[in-house]
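hey can u check if this looks right to u? its 552 residues, i copy pasted from the old doc so theres a chance i mangled smth
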Amino acid sequence: MSYDEPLRLPVAAIPEGCRDWTAGRAGGWSAALPPRWSFLRVRRSIAAAVSTFALCAGAWAAMLGGLWPLVAAGFAVYILWVLARPELVWVGAPVLLLALAVEARSLPWALTAVLAFAVVVTWAAVAVRLRARSGQLERALEAAGDITARTPDADAVLLRGRFLLPLGLTVLGLGVLTGATAGLWGTPDDERGSWVVAIYLAGLAVTALASAWLGRHRALALRRAPAPVLRVLVRDDAQGTTEVYAADDLAAVRPLFTVDLTSYDGEEPDDDEDEDDEDDEGGDEELERLLDAVDDDTPGPVREAVLYGAPFDGAEIVVVSADEDPDQPPLTEWSTGPVRPLSPSAGMRRVAKEKAREEQNRQLEEQARELVVDRPPVPVRRWRAGWLDWVAAALLVLWGAWFVAMWFSESGAPLWKLALLGVLGLYGVVRVPLKLAWRITADRSGLWVTGLRGPRHVPWDDIRSVRRQSFELKLRWRGDDWSVAAPRWAWFERRQGLVHPYDALAAELTAMRTDPALRPTGESTAPERGRPLWPLVLVLGLVWAAVLVVWG
C-alpha cells in the first residue's frame, strides 16, 4: 500500500489556526522521553507474564519457606505496577519496603537485601519515567502554541472506565472471598497459599480501579476546557492500534506514539427503544466490517487527523481523522488507553517489522496461489492435525499430570482440590481431542470444520478470514469462528527459512476464498469430512473422573 498521499481531512473539521506537528517539533518531544531502562514501553503480555511468574515464586516461598503472604503477593503486584501502572508505584514501593522491614527478622538477610534493592532500583526508574512526562507535556504545548479548541462531543455521556470499574469490584470480591475462606483450605501451607492468592487478587482489583479512575479523570479534564490541538497523520496497524505520525511524515516512516481508540465513547444505549430487523442487520454488517478490519493483518492507510490534547506518556487524547471510506464524515475517536510513546529507534523498528510481516504474508499467499494453480484440479482438499498439534496436546496432558502429582502426593485430597481439578479437567478433555483430531475439508460448496457434535459446514461466501495469529490458526465466518493452537518459534522459523503449517494452510485457504477458480471441484463424502469428537471427549472425561475418584 502506498502512503505518499494520505486521506484528506475536510477543512471544516480542522480548528482555525491549528498547527502542523512537524517532524522537527516532534523531534524535540521525543528528546524529552525517558531512557529505555525506565520501563517506558513494556508489552502487556510481558508485564502479565513477569507478574504471574513472581506470584508463582512467591506462593511457593510462602508455602514452603515461610515468606509472609503480604510480601509474596505484594511483590508480584508491585512488578505489575512498575511495568504497566507506574502511577501506583509511589504508594506500592514504600508499603513493600515497610513490609520487608517488618518481615526481615524471619527471612534470610540475602533475600531481604535482594528484594529491597529491587524495589529501590525500580522505584528510581519509575521516578525518572514520571518526571519526564512534564518535559513531554511542555514540548507538546510549545508545538501547539496558544491554539485550543473544544473537543467534539464534549457534552456527550462519558463511558471511559465503565468496564474496569465493575471488573475491579468483581476481582476485589473474589479476593475477599478467598481470604475469608483461607482457614477452610486444608493444611497450613494451603492456607498461606490462599492468602497469597487473596492479596494478589486484591492488588489486581486496586490496579483495575485505579486505572478506571485515572482514565476517567483525565478524559473528563480533556472535555471540561478547550484543549491544545495539533495536525498529525494517523494509521491503524495490523492489530487495530492507532499509530500517530508527524504531519510531514507522509511515508509513515517513524511513529511518535501509539494509542487505542474507540468511536463509541459518546454513545449511550437506549434499552427502551425497540430495533427492527433491518437495524439489526445493519448492526451485524457493521460488526462484521470491524472484525474484517481487525483480521485484515495489514496496516490501514495514512490519514490526516487533528489531535486534541497534549500528548505525553499516559495521556488521554481525542483524534478526529479522515475516514477510510471517502463517502463517510470525519471519524471522531476517544482514547481507551494511555498514550504509549515510541523512541525514534523503536518507532522505525516497529515499521520495519510491519513491512517485513506484510512481505512475508504476501509471499506466502503468492506461494499458496502458485501451488494451487500448478496442482491438477482435485475434487476435495483436506488438512488435519500434524506433529506440532500432537506436541501441543502432549504439553497439555503433561501439565495436567504435573497438577495431579503436585496436589495428590498423598491420598485423601480435600474436596475443594477435587472440585478445582474437575473443572480444569473439563477444559483438558475438550481441548485435547480437538488438538489431536481436528480436520478441515474443502469442496466446491465450502469448508467442513471438525466439531464436537460433528463437522460444521461453512459456505465459501460466509468465510470472513483465515489467519495465523500468534500461536493460533483462526478461521472466522459469518456469525461464528473456530481456532486451534500449536507451538511456534518465529525467530527459528525466520532463521531457517521455515514456514509454519498454520501459515501455509491459512495462505492456501485465503487464495481459495478470494479466487473461486482455485477451489476444489467435487463434493466431499461423510468419511472425508471427519467424525464427531464427542465420543473421544466422553472417554477422556471418564478416565479423568476415575483418576479423581482413585486419588481422592
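The longest helix spans residues 188-224.
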